[in-house]
Amino acid sequence: xxxxxxxxxxxxxxxxxxxxxxxxxxxxxxxxxxxxxxxxxxxxxxxxxxxxxxxxxxxxxxxxxxxxxxxxxxxxxxxxxxxxxxxxxxxxxxxxxxxxxxxxxxxxxxxxxxxxxxxxxxxxxxxxxxxxxxxxxxxxxxxxxxxxxxxxxxxxxxxxxxxxxxxxxxxxxxxxxxxxxxxxxxxxxxxxxxxxxxxxxxxxxxxxxxxxxxxxxxxxxxxxxxxxxxxxxxxxxxxxxxxxxxxxxxxxxxxxxxxxxxxxxxxxxxxxxxxxxxxxxxxxxxxxxxxxxxxxxxxxxxxxxxxxxxxxxxxxxxxxxxxxxxxxxxxxxxxxxxxxxxxxxxxxxxxxxxxxxxxxxxxxxxxxxxxxxxxxxxxxxxxxxxxxxxxxxxxxxxxx
Length: 400
Ligand SMILES: C[S@@+](CC[C@H](N)C(=O)[O-])C[C@H]1O[C@@H](n2cnc3c(N)ncnc32)[C@H](O)[C@@H]1O
Hints:
With about 400 residues, this protein is an alpha/beta fold. The chain has three domains: about 120 residues, Orthogonal Bundle (Arc Repressor Mutant, subunit A); about 70 residues, no CATH class; about 190 residues, Rossmann fold (3-Layer(aba) Sandwich). It has 19 helices and twelve strands.
């Protein structure tokens, strides 16, 4: 059986199945229920016990869900029909062991990921349909199969380092857990999950308000007005932009901008690009080295600085700073800005990912000022908030 293909956005179901409500009228009640359930987890033991039971079912379910992505079960079921499907027939179509598939599907039926219709017969839920979308299904493979030992053995890593906050990019819990010296990106590439990770990043922002929407950041006032109108002038450089999903979205929102949109990432990632808006320039670039594009209207760093401890970020920022033009260039850092109190769980959860995989962090407001102004010598002009639980856009300039 050939390996499952990866690639941005290829699927037989529309991504709205995962990002839009299936029953719009149920949304207010569901929101109330989620909020109540979340509060009960933080205030009473019965809620915590329920969560522990869910964790037990989830561990096994992950095996079945990932199996379904890698074996193309979800893809096949979506293609077949919306009707009940027999495990025996699916096993035959996929060329896999029927006994094995029946066991996995039984657990997924028992835990609500599939609807059990009869003996060995199931229908997809919207959740399992969405698992056939590369940006969603491949995320599970990229993150769980390559890195999950990092959080699981974090306590041991931490004990052996005297319970000190880790800040060494060359000594991470993920490296410790897998016995490798590779960072997370190289590690995923080495295991054959590089393109799955790109799919993960393509899907990561789904459902959030894009930073270039006028209700988030006024692109026209802050970037387009006053920009060099030479069509060859660099307008926006996405540093560590992966396979270009952010620039493509930017192009959709603002096809009229003067100058060039430039995508930079490591050669292995640029080489994985399958489809990209033709006007976007692709450039192989290592952000630890001299920035080759000078005087762009804006440089954009999304989800990059959170991957690295302050010392490394300072050096990445020094390369951008050296290329910026005084009074013209802006640096846009798109990341969580965690409030000092009442942090939102999605941001703290991502902080735990950074802690256990990269010895890095999601930063609080104070930590950002310390990194950007005190350490890197740039000025924060304004922080534009994307709303509760969303990332913010930190706009920076060279100090006058
Ligand atoms: C967490 S991903 C963020 C991708 C994209 N900016 C986004 O938000 O979807 C980090 C990106 O940094 C890239 N990266 C890691 N090390 C790099 C380096 N030394 N130079 C350039 N890019 C690098 C990775 O390949 C990856 O695409």
